[in-house]
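Researcher: We plan to redesign the surface later, but first we want a full-length starting point. Tokens attached.
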């Protein structure tokens, strides 16, 4: 089977989207070595930035905008290169056999979390999806959301996600900006309104659990619509109770997961929520939002749920987790890895491929 892969994000894209794309392609290649995967990469991307493409054929696209490339240029390339199917991210081709992976439609269910420009851009996702042979997404929760909001998109398959190969094989290394503290609480992810960082920080401060010897470390960079943190948070940063680390490498992120007192992720909603899954893989106790997708993917020992809108509840959960003894790194890592071992990128790729080639629809969950 010859598959043209939308690799628009391969070298430069949202971190989560880039990670899902590269790992799905590698998982597909491993699970189906006889398939030919052809990566469609924008002509503007320098070859030196294309890590991990040596085993694949690469073709160049000329357009600038991702939706236009996928809708028009990819199906034209597919005809030219005798392609059997196209695998696209978010934006479906207008014609030809294709599977489109829709990461989420939170911009439809909660438009207040997005800028007007983001909403206009993302609005093309459901419009183009009508032309796809198969629509896939990461979780059962997100599949239900897509179907509920978009009545013309009723055949949506949940294929799951796994831990990034780059992270799972990383070597632990302490980040330079953590201040050499031996005890800390960790949160990580893009900094925007949906990630609910303001309530997270206010609740953490209100708990009284933070100190110079046990600060809250914040990993991630601003992306999209954000909220102001306020004077209390600014003061806490000056006092060393909260430390913003920005971007960290996979080696550093693994070390932070393994060493933190606990990991918190109080997003208001997610399509899947891979970040806390990573934390549990490395054995970190987790405090997460009481939302459907986390009950789907994280309902296991070592994970506590809290109302992400209630600052007092967040404060109470922080106090409770701060007083618990975390298992040793080796014990917690073994239990965490075992908890999510069944899901692999190869299994996700297999589900996507099956949705493309089978004449029978997969079970709609």
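Model: Full-length starting sequence:
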């Amino acid at each position: 089977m010859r598959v043209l892969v939308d690799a628009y994000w391969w070298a430069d894209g949202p971190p989560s989207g880039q990670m899902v794309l590269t790992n799905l392609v590698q998982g597909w290649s491993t699970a189906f070595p006889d398939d030919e995967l052809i990566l469609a990469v924008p002509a503007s991307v320098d070859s030196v930035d294309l890590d991990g493409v040596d085993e694949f054929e690469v073709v160049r696209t000329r357009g600038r905008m991702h939706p236009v490339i996928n809708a028009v240029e990819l199906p034209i390339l597919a005809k030219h290169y005798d392609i059997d199917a196209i695998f696209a991210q978010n934006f479906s081709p207008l014609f030809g056999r294709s599977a489109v992976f829709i990461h989420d439609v939170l911009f439809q269910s909660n438009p207040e979390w997005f800028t007007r420009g983001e909403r206009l851009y993302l609005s093309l996702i459901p419009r183009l999806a009508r032309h796809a042979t198969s629509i896939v997404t990461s979780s059962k929760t997100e599949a239900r959301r897509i179907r509920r909001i978009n009545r013309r998109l009723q055949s949506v398959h949940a294929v799951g996600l796994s831990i990034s190969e780059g992270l799972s094989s990383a070597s632990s290394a302490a980040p330079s900006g953590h201040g050499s503290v031996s005890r800390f609480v960790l949160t990580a992810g893009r900094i925007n309104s949906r990630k609910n960082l303001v309530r997270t920080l206010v609740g953490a401060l209100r708990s009284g659990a933070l100190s110079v010897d046990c600060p809250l470390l914040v990993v991630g960079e601003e992306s999209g619509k954000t909220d102001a943190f306020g004077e209390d948070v600014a003061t806490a940063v000056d006092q060393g109770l909260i430390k913003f680390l920005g971007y960290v490498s996979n080696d550093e992120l693994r070390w932070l997961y393994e060493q933190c007192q606990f990991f918190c992720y109080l997003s208001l909603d997610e399509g899947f929520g891979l970040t806390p899954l990573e934390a549990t893989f490395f054995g970190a106790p987790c405090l997460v939002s009481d939302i459907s997708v986390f009950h789907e993917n994280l309902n296991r020992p070592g994970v506590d749920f809290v109302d992400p809108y209630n600052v007092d509840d967040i404060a109470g959960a922080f106090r409770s987790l701060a007083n618990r003894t975390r298992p040793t790194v080796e014990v917690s890592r073994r239990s965490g890895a075992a908890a999510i071992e069944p899901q692999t990128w190869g299994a996700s790729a297999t589900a996507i491929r099956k949705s493309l080639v089978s004449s029978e629809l997969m079970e709609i969950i």
